[in-house]
Amino acid sequence: MRGRIMWWGLLLATGVFVLAYLYFTLLPGPVEPAARQYFTTAEIAAGRKYAQANRLIFLASFAAEVGVVAWLVFGPAAARLGHGAMRLAQGRPVVAAFLFFLALWALLRAVNLPFSLYSSYYLEHRWGFSTESLASWWADYFKGAVLDLVLSGAGVLLFFWTTGRWPQTWWLYAGTFLAVWLVVANYLWPVLVAPLFNRFTPATDPEIVAMVKRLAERADLSVDKVLVMDASRRTTKANAYFAGLGRTKRIVLYDTLLRDYPRDEVEAVVAHEMAHWKLGHIRQGTIYGILANFALWLLLFLFLRFSLDLPRRGPYPPEVWALVVLFFLVASFLGNPVASGISRRMEAAADSYAVKLTSDPAAAVRLQVDLARRDLADVSPPPFIEWFSYTHPSTLRRIEAIRAVPLKESRP
Ligand SMILES: [Zn+2]
Question: Which of 175, 177, 370, 394 has the most crowded Cβ, counting Cβ within 10 A?
Fold first, then answer.
């Protein structure tokens, strides 16, 4: 393969970040003294230990996946598998590509399965978070796998068809298809996909309904959907999120939050999600996603152009799919600091807007402390790890920022 140097460069950069991440996972350094204002030594230590286990699994599963795909790509295996697929498909290139995809998909699923089972089942049980039986874990796993297979299978067919139809400009078409898909997916996810895994019921508790109404009026929003999700069937952890676009916009509260947290802290959560709504964060995130998607397809196109003798006409050979997978695995890992940086900025904006909505910074701070304590957050993570992979600012940063929000009036 020509252009090996570019791929090795990409893998070298990945290796450097993996080693740095591993270093700070194993030797996280001292905890900021401010942490002791809010947490006991035992709480801080438990949060660190739990985070360490999760970080190690994340690294190990990523390294295993990249290792397997790189072994395929840089050895003879991918080309052999490609030829086999071509023979089976009797020379029909898109069918052959699909067969190749199926084989690689199954292989990566098999590589990833032990890590996923360990982290989302065994580890969660060991730390006392999971309320799920093994049977229901497997049911979720199969549902997720089927969904993934159908969607990525359709994506593969479209990719190979596009590379055959527009050999020089397919990246533009691929980018356009994915951009449309990102919008559709964000729109449909909460109404089609989320209900496959959980039940959602409108919040009817009069206290919550009144709270939502009050906050929505202050934010000058018409929030018509606040749903409660049966999270307690899987976990004791509490959370909430904002999802959807246009008419599918909704705020989702975990039932564990309503069960275990005082009302003023629930209010802080609702205000935070409403802030995402008000500030248009899903829309913004979708736009960033679309821009990144075009940049990545162009980069992939250049990588493939330089490294392979590609046919002038007709779709790419099936084994190119292994390179595509390697590229996206590594690019999304290396893109982590950018994506999490953007996310952290939105989260910080939502936190400060929320405090202005509730005028109750004390409850917002207590919420951060309670969430970190109950869900075992690493309250003072190594700065490198926070920079690399935290989608939310760490607990101490959030508390500091909430405290720093200037308030015009105090709560009546
Ligand atoms: Zn948020």
Answer: 394
